[in-house]
Design brief:
Glycinamide Ribonucleotide Synthetase, Chain A, domain 4, binds adenosine monophosphate, 27 strands, 464 residues, globular, 6-stranded antiparallel beta sheet, single chain, Dna Ligase, domain 1, alpha+beta, binds glycine
Length: 464
């Protein structure tokens, strides 16, 4: 990485450099109860830290790693800060976006507890799509499609009627990844887009107006990077699969699975494309600073490679789920030091990445995407899954009396490594035999055919 001293300004904690991460020892509170938080907690625990957790469900994987669990609404910033103080947490890592929007980092700062995750103002890069788009345009940063933001239905409708291209309608506020509708996918045409705008204003979806964008076409990819407000430490790229079913069909979901390849790029993304995306993120950080919203935490750019180059689809102010699992699994070095020093404003330590591919596949309740079946029993044979060389991360499930049940969200993820994605996918296929209950997964993620399709898509986009 960049300039850096290896000592932290945190008082009272023993800090070492990444090579000796096993001696780092703190009490770290992890906020969130999904697979992303499970792998974060597992990693921080393996680096010698004691884990505390705060989550709305009772995630068995995280609970097992924790000395104490607070089961609560994850946006209850004051309550979580109180728990952190009461349990003597030295540091807090926030997984999901909702607590960040609720100002958990600001609340913890007032309590004198450092936190990995931006304050409410900086988290607007995710929680306000109109702020994110506006920031790029104000600072002349490339990557925006044609767009306009509106606080009134009639202005938005008038704008759509004047557009000579298909549009995407986005509630500006947070909608858990399910509020965006694209003409040609969830919407038939621009007339239907106008109707959806009406629904957004009538029902208050997202609660903060709409952004109307030009519809882009291409392949999406995720670039995640730790930021101390000034510098970025990027992870390898990964690609999520948002649609519920094989072949990118069915409703949009929070993400059904993801893969990464051994060189840190993707079958359709070359080094130049990746650097273009990183450069957009670097300029965004500088813009945030200049507007008094220094961003310390994890900046996750959702990009699309189009025939017109790399475009920004959205920013997120947190690790991606599922792609966090792909990248943390291959990261070597002390993550604790990296996260703490970023929160402190002086990124130190370093990460290197194993040259291996990864595949992550979510198992979700039957009906997920439309009407998920909640509270149904699931069985998981952890030992047999581990014997296939596959990692299991628990998501939105509940455990009571040793029995697991589904919630309305993604239940758990299987993650495997391999020389090629299809080697990892084959392992996951075998491990999947040790799972029972009303859950389903996407069987195409990471397969040889899927990778070939991605490569061809990339060739077509680069040829133009
Ligand atoms: P977002 O919540 O902004 O990531 O949008 C959800 C999904 O909608 C993205 O993952 C894309 O698949 C799609 N999407 C968002 N913006 C655009 C756009 N301008 N053009 C085409 N698809 C888009
Ligand atoms: N990969 C989707 C998300 O984390 O929002």
């Amino acid at each position: 990485m960049h300039e850096a001293g290896s000592t932290s300004r945190y008082p009272g904690h023993l800090y070492t450099d990444a090579a000796d991460a096993s001696t780092v020892s703190m009490k770290i509170l992890v906020v969130g109860g999904g697979c992303r938080e499970h792998i974060i907690a597992e990693r921080l625990s393996s680096e010698g830290n004691a884990i505390l957790s705060a989550m709305k469900n009772r995630n068995p994987g995280i609970s097992r790693l924790s000395d104490a669990v607070l089961q609560c609404d994850e946006t209850a910033a004051g309550r979580i800060a109180g728990f952190a103080r009461e349990k003597g947490a030295d540091f807090v890592v926030v997984g999901p976006e909702n607590p960040l929007q609720a100002g958990i980092a600001d609340e913890l700062a007032s309590a004198g507890i450092p936190c990995f995750g931006p304050g409410r103002d900086a988290a607007e890069i995710e929680s306000s799509k109109s702020f994110a788009r506006g920031l790029l345009s104000r600072h002349g940063i490339p990557g925006n499609p044609e767009f306009a933001s509106f606080d009134s239905e009639s202005d938005a409708v008038r704008y759509i009627r004047s557009c000579g291209h298909d549009v995407v309608v986005k509630p500006s506020g947070l909608t858990g990844g399910k509020g965006v509708k694209v003409v040609g996918e969830q919407l038939r045409d621009n007339a239907e887009a106008c109707e959806y705008v009406g629904e957004i204003f009538n029902r208050g979806i997202g609660g903060a107006g709409v952004v109307i964008e030009e519809r882009l076409r291409g392949e999406e990819f995720s670039l995640q990077a730790v930021s101390d407000g000034k510098r970025l430490l990027p992870f390898p790229l990964a690609q999520d699969h948002k649609r519920a079913h094989e072949g990118d069909t069915g409703p949009n979901t929070g993400g059904m699975g993801s893969y990464s390849i051994s060189n840190g790029l993707l079958p359709f993304v070359n080094a130049e494309d990746r650097n273009e995306a990183l450069c957009i993120m670097q300029r965004t950080l500088a813009a945030m600073r200049s507007e008094g919203r220094e961003f310390r935490g994890l900046l996750y750019g959702g990009f699309m490679l189009t025939d017109g180059g790399v475009k920004l689809i959205e920013y997120n102010a947190r690790f991606a789920d599922p792609e966090s699992m792909n990248v943390i699994a291959v990261a070597r070095g002390g993550l604790t030091d990296v996260l703490c020093s970023a929160a402190d404003g002086s990124l130190s330590g370093s990460l290197s990445f194993e040259h291996t591919a990864t595949v992550c596949r979510y198992y979700v309740p039957h009906g997920y995407g439309d009407r998920p079946v909640k509270g149904s029993p699931i069985t998981v044979d952890e030992e047999k899954i581990a014997a296939e060389g596959v990692k299991l991360y628990y998501g939105s499930v509940n455990e009571k009396g040793g029995k697991l049940t589904t919630t309305t969200s993604r239940s758990f993820a299987l993650l495997a490594k391999g020389d090629e994605p299809w080697d990892a996918a084959a392992r996951i296929e075998r491990a999947g035999q040790h799972i029972g209950g009303l859950v389903y997964t996407r069987k195409d993620i990471g397969t040889r055919e899927e990778m070939q399709r991605k490569r061809s898509a990339g060739e077509a986009l680069h040829r133009v």
